[in-house]
Amino acid sequence: MLYHNDMSVCAAKVRNALHEKGIAWQGVRMDLRAGDVQKPEYVKLNPNQVVPTLVDRGRVIIESNVILEYIEDRWPGTVRLRPSSPADIAAMRLWMKQLDDGVHATIGTVSTSIAFRHQFLARPAPVLQAWYDNMVDEARRNRLRLAIEQGMESAQFSQAVKRLIRLLDDIERALADSLWLAGPNYSLADIAYSPYMIRMEHLGFGDLLAARPRIADWARRLYATPGYIAGVHGFMDPAYLTIFERERPAARQRINEIAAVPLAR
């Protein structure tokens, strides 16, 4: 059983891996805006109040990158998603570690500042406040509050965009040496990043992606994989895509303005 959300990037990469391996799965869709992940029965499964959560034979597995490796070990099958060499395995895990060490939170900041804030601001103030109050992660609560209240005008938005530009530069360099992030073969590292890449396109990073030819080619190959088509693209919510499309022109302009500033490394 997979507890997930259609547009969650973390849930998307887990669905991608399951479909890539041809694993049949059942899902429970969680409404993140309605606070489903804050309900006591879900918190018992995942105290972090996030998706996804995988329940397999009574065993609860949380944290999306951990779930990806669990899937690889639990269902080795004929499709291998972990590299064969120790060096490439290390590279795969370092790319995935970047997501956990800040890239995921950065995407959350950018997504909320550009698009999701409008959904929250449309809610009655007491309902929004209750959502804040029930969030266990104080740092996440403060980050999202700022993104909702100030949007692209907040200092954290500019910092987040610069972090993502640095990530794109790192990926472009890495792809000079191999077709995929962690060696010659498609792996969990590529799966882990695929929903983040399409999210950046949705949010207005298209010019920055197109300016990096290796990333542009890699993204086309990512989007053509069976796991991505079924597990990511197949779950795109039209309501969210409409918000992205509406907000993208202003976001694109702001992102390109920020990108013109030299980045400190």
Automatic annotation (TrEMBL):
<dbReference type="InterPro" id="IPR010987">
    <property type="entry name" value="Glutathione-S-Trfase_C-like"/>
</dbReference>
<dbReference type="InterPro" id="IPR040079">
    <property type="entry name" value="Glutathione_S-Trfase"/>
</dbReference>
<dbReference type="InterPro" id="IPR036249">
    <property type="entry name" value="Thioredoxin-like_sf"/>
</dbReference>
<dbReference type="InterPro" id="IPR036282">
    <property type="entry name" value="Glutathione-S-Trfase_C_sf"/>
</dbReference>
<feature type="domain" description="GST N-terminal">
    <location>
        <begin position="1"/>
        <end position="79"/>
    </location>
</feature>
<dbReference type="Pfam" id="PF13409">
    <property type="entry name" value="GST_N_2"/>
</dbReference>
<dbReference type="InterPro" id="IPR004045">
    <property type="entry name" value="Glutathione_S-Trfase_N"/>
</dbReference>
<protein>
    <submittedName>
        <fullName>Glutathione S-transferase family protein</fullName>
    </submittedName>
</protein>
<feature type="domain" description="GST C-terminal">
    <location>
        <begin position="85"/>
        <end position="240"/>
    </location>
</feature>
<dbReference type="Pfam" id="PF13410">
    <property type="entry name" value="GST_C_2"/>
</dbReference>
